[in-house]
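User: I'm new to structure prediction. If I give you an amino acid sequence, what do you actually give back? Let's try with this one:
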Amino acid sequence: MEHDTLSHPEIQRIAGRIDRPVVLVGMMGVGKTTVGRKLSGLLALPFVDADEEIERAAQMSIPEIFAQYGEAYFRDGERRVIARLVGGDADGHPARKVLATGGGAFVDADTRALILSRAIAVWIDSDLDTLVERVGRKDNRPLLRQGNPREILGRLRTEREPAYSQAHIHVISGHQPHGVTVHTILKAIDAWL
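Assistant: Good question. You get back a string of structure tokens that encode the predicted 3D arrangement of the chain. For your 193 residues, that looks like this:
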């Protein structure tokens, strides 16, 4: 076991302090879904992928939504789904869970304000080379079909950084295993709470 990892009792203590959703934000390819699943498992909290929820609500894939209706329509649906996912229960208390969002979700001012007020926003950041390598593994990124993926990712990363930087917590995910990122997030949440 690495010296940087938290013990089970430490993780349980941190989990007990979390009183709202943990929302992972950041660029496509940074590992929000993979990290989110691992984080939710350690915290014994439900995991929800916003993109999967959007596809379920629309009954079509995200590339199909983009192709048929465009990005503005997708962002509107994304905003509504995330509002439902970070919204409170019947008594207005936010449900504890780990939520992975799409890369552009936190850029929307209304979605960002909602997440910042109702959740713990964690920006998972990575260098451009890592992002390019990771997104190249799949062909399901509508925004990357419009030109050179490296140029598009670089532009999006620059454009979105001011929004991402408003997240409560900022962690770097490079070439280390996602488990290291998870423990970094746990320590950052513990320090932030």
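You can read the tokens as a compact description of the fold. Here is one thing that stands out. Residues 21-192 form a domain with the Rossmann fold fold (CATH 3.40.50.300).
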